[in-house]
From TrEMBL:
Enzyme Commission number: 3.5.4.4
Purpose of the protein: Catalyzes the hydrolytic deamination of adenosine and 2-deoxyadenosine.
Cofactor: Zn(2+)
Residues under site feature: Important for catalytic activity: 237
Organism listed in the record: Rhodococcoides trifolii
Textual note on the cofactor: Binds 1 zinc ion per subunit.
Entry annotated with the keyword Metal-binding: yes
GO MF, one example: zinc ion binding
NCBIfam families for the chain: aden_deam, PRK09358.1-2
InterPro entries in UniProt: A_deaminase, A_deaminase_dom, Ado/ade_deaminase, Metal_Hydrolase
Designated name of the protein: Adenosine deaminase
Length: 367
């Protein structure tokens, strides 16, 4: 073996080799364009705007670049439409696990809303069963290629609907079979997290984990409710916490009460830089508050959100942040450890991955 001569360059190739942990990734936002085309033909869905895989991939990216969360969410009608039977759910979940493993992700919590996959007669339990079976098949296929990944499933309830308690019960029912937690998602404006208190109380009563989409587009009131009223374990996005941080002309930050509480309690922020730019939450990666939050020692994590719509991966997200803010390998390792510390894995399993997967993996890259 050749002796190492120093750190690997912080380029896309080297970052792809780094072990990564992902907490915020939507299953229905990460399909391969070719799979969408293929499944649409199989299930008879004729609503696709493009039937060429490359053109469809460009359409998803361009349609998501609207600067509006509501319009961004409209693109999911096409992916959800081809995930309505056993074949669609299993294939999408399997390919998700394989694609993440190929990107160097060693642990991922992938979320989806079972209530959106009932149009062809599947029950909620069947939807979850087929999806988890797909994840396991993907993990096995990745191992054959020498890539190890573990997928934990988050079950999401749509915040504009009225099934959150039912989905929370589903999450608890499957928590020993691959489901690691619960979430609510969808447009924030007009649908505050406190509408779903019954679901969150049920999760707490059953000693179960949950995260809440909050502070992506709506701002501090959404974060306040998620933290103070609902007791969330993590904040999905949470980027608008920056609105409670005042930076003076000399660059000195002052934290408001909510920002200070989130930092003091080490509530993890599931930040999704590229997605935040697409939905208009921030103007550009260079202007993203990620770096300020990281320097202030908030529990920041790097995430993809929707790999198809953002045409992204964990490697690309980390590379973009490194280019914008000058991060080195130690920073990327810290963000990865933040994610594993914040995961819904049991504590001893988190430590096992940090000590025996992440740290050795980064040590090789540092040289």
């Amino acid at each position: 073996m050749e002796a190492t001569t120093g750190p690997a360059p912080l380029d896309l190739t080297s970052i792809a080799r780094a072990p990564k942990a992902l907490l915020h990734d939507h299953l229905d936002g990460g399909l391969r364009p070719a799979t969408v085309v293929d499944l649409a033909a199989q299930c008879g869905y004729d609503g696709l705007p493009e039937t060429d895989a490359d053109a469809l991939g460009r359409w998803f990216r361009d349609a998501a670049d609207s600067g509006s969360l509501v319009r961004y969410l409209e693109t999911f009608a096409h992916t959800v439409a081809v995930m309505q039977d056993e074949n669609g759910l299993h294939r999408v979940a399997q390919e998700c696990a394989e694609d993440l493993a190929d990107d160097g992700v060693v642990y991922a919590e992938v979320r989806f809303a079972p209530e959106q996959h009932l149009e062809r007669g599947l029950s909620l339990d069947e939807v979850v069963e087929h999806t988890i079976e797909g994840f396991r098949a993907g993990e096995s296929a990745a191992r054959v290629r020498g890539k190890n990944i573990r997928i934990g499933c988050l079950l999401t309830a749509m915040r504009h609907a009225a099934r959150s308690r039912e989905i929370a019960e589903l999450a608890v029912r499957f928590r020993d079979r691959g489901v690691v937690g619960f979430d609510i998602a969808g447009a924030e404006a007009g649908f505050p997290p406190s509408r779903h208190l019954d679901a969150f109380e049920y999760m707490r009563a059953n000693n179960a984990h949950f995260t809440i989409h909050a502070g992506e587009a709506f701002g501090l009131p959404s974060i306040q409710e998620a933290v103070a009223f609902c007791g969330t374990d993590r904040l999905g996005h949470g980027v608008r916490i920056i609105d409670d941080i005042d930076v003076d002309a000399e660059g000195h930050p002052t934290l408001g009460l909510l920002a200070a509480y989130v930092r003091d309690k080490r509530i993890p922020l599931e930040l999704c830089p590229s997605s935040n730019v697409q939905t208009g939450a921030v103007a550009s990666i260079a202007e993203h508050p990620f770096d300020l939050l990281a320097r202030l020692r908030f529990r920041v994590t790097v995430n993809t959100d929707n790999r198809l719509m953002s045409d992204t991966s964990m490697t690309r997200e980390m590379h973009a942040l490194s280019q914008a803010f000058g991060y080195g390998w130690s920073d990327l390792q810290r963000f990865t450890i933040n994610a594993l510390k914040s995961s819904f894995l049991p504590f001893d399993e988190r430590l096992e991955m940090i000590d025996h997967v992440v740290k050795p993996g980064y040590a090789v890259l540092v040289g």
